Amino acid sequence: MSDVIIETRGLVKKFHHLTVLDGISTEVRRGEVVVIIGPSGSGKSTFLRCLNWLEEPSGGEIFFEGQKVTGKNKDLNRVRQKMGMVFQQFNLFPHRTVLQNITMAPIKLKKETEAEAKKRAMELLDRVGLADKAKSYPKELSGGQQQRIAIVRALAMQPDVMLFDEPTSALDPEMVGEVLDVMKSLAREGMTMVVVTHEMGFAREVGERVLFMDGGVIAEENTPAELFGNPQNERTQAFLSKVL
Ligand code: ADP
Ligand code: MG
């Protein structure tokens, strides 16, 4: 089996006349942590959303685990089940307990029994140190706790890839670390991850490849050491001078 898990070729996304992704070609390998940085509006979220079909691409191709998921005969359910996504705004269901939030999709979409789903949920909650919150409601939890639950909810579907869209941007500073720690441990365990973030420390420490997006294209792509230490593109330099 090829170790490329996601491949895009000339991916284009337009909203009416606005071209938001202007030909993105890249690959993500199994077990790799790819970090995406870039200015606001450069298309980072749209790129992630096209990968798992929260947005329909306007052109180009996406391959997931060797299967084409653009064009005819695509299996979108599989793509969505196998790519977990974590958003800036947690998006937990407010009127469901933590446990229900986590077990809902595995029961409904993967036809797991309640007992199976609950068992995995509790194991995962334990891993992120929140087993005692199983019966709580989201509003009873801090932002950092809610985001760790959102990560667990995605993991409960046993995804092959995790997509993170600025998972710490909505958090108070003192809660950023606890979420990044969970992401770091996932990375260490070999999870394939695509992470949009402004946390440059995380990018350097955990990222194996950094994509700098600007104006709907990958303007520069390199290892963190090279991209941060020796950026080649003027736009990368300008961006880094503002955020580092
Ligand atoms: P980033 O995540 O890098 O900040 P986005 O992917 O969110 O960028 O947005 C890229 C561009 O696409 C922005 O100009 C944004 O206004 C536009 N855009 C995003 N989603 C929509 C949408 N659903 N309809 C119209 N324009 C959109
Ligand atoms: Mg965004």
TrEMBL record:
This entry carries the following GO cellular component terms, namely: plasma membrane
Residue ranges annotated for the ABC transporter domain, each copy included: 6-240
Superkingdom of source? Bacteria
A matching Pfam family: ABC_tran
Please tell me whether the keyword Chloroplast is annotated for this protein: no
Tell me, in one coarse class, where this protein mainly resides: membrane
CDD domains registered for this protein in UniProt: ABC_HisP_GlnQ (cd03262)
Q: What is this protein called?
A: Amino acid ABC transporter ATP-binding protein
The uppermost taxa in this organism's lineage are:
Bacteria, Bacillati, Bacillota, Clostridia, Christensenellales
